[in-house]
Amino acid sequence: MRELSGLDLLRRIAAGELPPAPIQATLGFTLDAVEHGRAVFSADVEERHYNPLGTMHGGVAATLLDSAMACAVHSTLPAGTSYTTLEFKVNLVRPATAATGRIVAEGTLVHRGGRVATAESRLVTADDGRLLAHATTTCLVVATMEA
Description:
Order of helices and strands: HHEEHEEEE
Helix content: 10-25%
Number of strands: 6
CATH class: Alpha Beta
Largest sheet: 6 strands, antiparallel
CATH architecture: Roll
Radius of gyration: 15 Å
Strand content: 35-45%
Number of helices: 3
């Protein structure tokens, strides 16, 4: 898959032509849309996502936000180039439960230079767009890494 650009790889995952990342199956979220500098993931909030307080665990929100931001960066990379997250910050502003229904994380590129890229994302309810969380990230752009 190193021969594919980031955008081509992500488009093939979204179309079901390539398997999604394992974390998507673990948490039950999908890559719904991708274009240059933008990626959208969604999931239905389920009880399996709950913390002991009976709301969606902040780690689930962080994972959706991180995935959206990282894929927004990934969508801008040529074949043979990769990235790694240097840091990300999440603000949780409203709890979610199964009654919340489907949630959507949209990530957008803010800046991509030769070595550093930044992105932001928002996690909202699918039905009325209420903000649940938002985040920012900084990524290091590197030559393709070996596993």
